[in-house]
Amino acid sequence: MSSPTFRQITVLPGVWASPGLLDRLRALSERPPLVLCEWPGGASALDRTDALLAGWKDVLGAEQLRRLPELRYVGLRATSTARVDEDYTRANGIAVSGIHHYGDTGTVEFVVEELLGHVRHRGESRGELAGRRLGLVGYGAVARGVGRVATALGMDVRFHTPTPRESSAGEPQWAPLRELLTGADLLSFHSPAYQHVVTLEELRLVPPTAFVVMTTLGLPMSEADLTAWQSGRPGGVVMDLCTASGSARDVLDLPGIQVRDLYAARTVESVRRAEDQVVDNILAALG
């Protein structure tokens, strides 16, 4: 007896599917996977697509999903479901599954690399991270990883979440947002996708020379607030392409802002982990 398969797996541009992933998908679909170069496109096979793979850049609103009358599964090569109309998928019995923690290590290493590079190679004198205060806005898995490394390097690490948290001695300590921003020598944002978590008033509490790293999906503040805050400020801001995506060019070209031409989470190892999880989720959906 043959294993269950989908009729047609369609792969959206944001998945960046490797040849190895496409080979694995062929065994899970009656037809070869349909790989779209643009979304939404005019591919005739959309009307028979019952499984859709999407990345964090792909928008899956009701308007787009209605083009897929046979759809019963959405697999995300992403953690956030912010760009999926979950009201529509629930109402139409479409299962949605994401992947988790695949890029944590790469993002942690990116943040630490930027912090080290700032104190060691980008100033007039070679400095150390030890003894400096690092503020973490958000405290998910990546922020906790950054906190562990920073603590091991001798930094004084504080983090902020909307709800206070208890920590053991020697671990990063929770702080109110205003206190965290005011006291930070270095600042790293790890807040939820596409959410503005700080205002201009709060940003102005950050010391003018503080160095800031952003690896969030989308800016963690409005473009207008970032522009007003960063204009004339001597401190630097570094962001990866996840944070910069969708922002206006004149904002990204502000003095002191550097956009690294990479996705912090994307490494050889994270791609392998992500694609393994995508396939595992499809197998689970097939039962």
Can I get a quick summary?
With 287 residues, the protein is α/β, with parallel strands linked by helices. It is built from 11 helices and 12 strands. It has 2 domains: 9-101 and 268-286, 3-Layer(aba) Sandwich (Rossmann fold); 104-259, Rossmann fold, CATH 3.40.50.
What does the largest sheet look like?
A: 7 strands, parallel
CATH class of the largest domain: Alpha Beta
Spatial order of strands in the largest sheet:
8-7-6-9-10-11-12
Report, as a whole number of angstroms, the end-to-end distance: 14 Å
In angstroms, what is the radius of gyration? 21 Å
Which range does the strand content fall in?
Answer: 15-25%
**How would you name the CATH homologous superfamily of the largest domain?**
NAD(P)-binding Rossmann-like Domain
**Helix and strand sequence:** EHEEHEHEHEHEEHEHEHEHHEH
Helix content: 25-40%
Output the CATH topology of the largest domain: Rossmann fold
Shape: elongated
Describe what you observe in this structure.
There is one protein chain. This protein has 287 residues and is α/β, with parallel strands linked by helices. It folds into two domains: 9-101 and 268-286, 3-Layer(aba) Sandwich (Rossmann fold); 104-259, Rossmann fold, CATH 3.40.50. Helices cover 33% and strands 15% of the residues. It is built from eleven helices and twelve strands. It has helices at residues 19-26, 62-65, 86-91, 104-121, 141-152, 177-183, 200-203, 223-230, 241-244, 249-252, 268-286, and strands spanning 9-11, 34-35, 51-55, 73-77, 95-97, 133-137, 156-160, 173-174, 186-189, 211-214, 237-239, 257-259. Strand 10 (211-214), helix 8 and strand 11 form a beta-alpha-beta unit. The longest helix is centred in the C-terminal third of the chain and has 19 residues, at 268-286.
